[in-house]
Structures are given as C-alpha cells and as structure tokens.
Design goal:
By secondary structure, the chain is mainly α. The chain has helices at about 1-25, 35, 40-50, 55-85, 90-105, 105-115, 120-145, 150-155, 160-200, 205-215, 220-245, 250.
Length: about 250
C-alpha cells in the first residue's frame, strides 16, 4: 500500500508540473494556445459546461452506456467462458471464433450497429458490450483451464460430480481473473461507447468531443479527454476496491 501511495504522489507531482509548464508556455506565447489549448481555457470550458448542465448530462450518458455495456458484455463472456469448462472440445472452436470477433475493429461495426438499433443509447451499449465480450470469454475460458491440477485431482479422487467441481473449485479459483477481466474491459467498453457517439449521437462525451473538434475548440476537446480518462480511472479504482473486499486473501499476500 505504501508503494502505491508513493507512486501516486510521484505521478501527481509530474502531472501538476506539466500542467503548470503548459499554462506558462501558453501565456508566454511559446506555444499556440489555439492549436494546443491551455489549462485555464480547459477550466473555463468546464465552468461553462457545468453551468449549462450539458457537460454533466453528457458525462452521465457516456458513463451509463459504458457501465451497462461493461456489465452485460463482460458478464455474458465470463459466464460462457466458464461454462465451456464442461465442453473442452467445443471450447477450442468457440475460442477461435472469439479471437476472430475480437480482431474486428469495433469502429467498423459501428455503422451496422447504429443502423440496426438506431442512434440512441441502445446502440452505444451494444458497441460497448461487443467490445468487451470476446476478451471476457477468452480470459474466463483460460481461467477455468488454469485451475490447480492438484486440487482438481483431489476433487476427482473424492468422486465429486462435475457440477460440484465447477461450483466449489472452478468458479472460486476464477474470481481473481474475473476482476482482472473487468479492469481490462473498462477501457474497451469506454472506447465502444465513445466510438458509437462519434458516429451518430446527440449526447455523450464522444459527441461533445466530435462537435468541439469540428469547431476547432481544442479546450473542450481536452476537457472531454480528461473526463473520459478520469472516468476510466475511477471505474478501475472501484473495481479494485471491490476486489480487495471479495478477494481478501490476495491482498494479504
């Protein structure tokens, strides 16, 4: 924990220093504030967005799409990946299809999903879910196969049924993997939601960034990027916090 706190302090110090230097360079006209933006300009954009309420609403829309896509896509992928433990021959085939699906650029699927499900939140949730499904399924399938062989043989020596082995051994042993899957998929879900908002949307941070970029409002673009980064960081922290509560033995080691 002390090591993590030390690393956090170092990163925070570096970021604060860079922001100060950025603002000083913009004020001294050493850099073009119109092309690169400035911390004060980003702050003013944030104040305007919060005052009007649109920034808070856009943030909520993207957060909701990301969370729902993350939970649905990762949840379905994890369940399918673990269940494939019962069917080892089938798991190899399904895993290959998942790798193929994961290799498809999600931005290429965006227009299809939006045509099928419209330009509302549903299409963004679908994109976020699709972006997380394959990774979750492949990782959970690998987690089920990586269970300690000695423990597995011990269960078999006591004539335990496969359903009991799955419930008492496979699922508990896969819990650390499951939390890792959620942490990894936060970024993928966020990318899926933002890509959908870029393509066709009236709300959301992706839409706001797209509009700001079209108007050459670099401060608002930076503001959207910063909020998306903070959103990913907070969601990752929440998952880690839950993991520390659930997988207490891992924290104690």
């Amino acid at each position: 924990m002390k090591k993590n706190n030390g690393a956090t302090m170092i990163v925070t110090t570096i970021l604060v220093t860079l922001v100060i230097l950025w603002q000083m360079a913009a004020q001294a006209n050493l850099i073009n504030g119109q092309l690169l933006g400035s911390p004060l300009g980003i702050y003013h954009s944030a104040v305007i967005g919060v005052t009007k309420g649109q920034l808070l609403y856009d943030t909520w829309v993207t957060l909701f799409e990301t969370l729902l896509g993350l939970v649905v896509g990762s949840g379905l992928g994890i369940v399918l990946g673990l269940v494939l433990w019962f069917y080892p021959r089938t798991s190899d085939i399904v895993e290959q299809f998942s790798i193929l699906l994961n290799s498809i650029p999600k931005i290429a699927l965006g227009p299809l999903i939006i045509i099928w499900f419209g330009s509302g939140m549903i299409s963004k949730i679908w994109l976020a879910g699709i972006s997380t499904f394959a990774v979750a399924m492949i990782s959970s399938c690998a987690a089920a196969q990586e269970v300690d062989r000695d423990l597995l043989n011990l269960f078999k020596s006591f004539k335990a049924q496969r359903a009991m082995i799955f419930r008492k051994l496979i699922v508990p042993a896969s819990i650390p993997w499951i939390f890792s899957i959620f942490r990894i998929n936060i970024g993928f879900a966020l990318i899926g939601a933002v890509v959908g908002e870029f393509i066709a949307s009236e709300n959301g941070l992706g839409h706001a960034v797209f509009v700001a970029g079209s108007l050459f409002d670099l401060n608002s673009v930076w503001l959207g990027v910063i909020i998306l980064t903070l959103m990913a960081a907070v969601l990752t922290w929440v998952v880690q916090l839950i993991e520390e509560r659930v997988v207490s033995w891992k924290v104690e080691q």
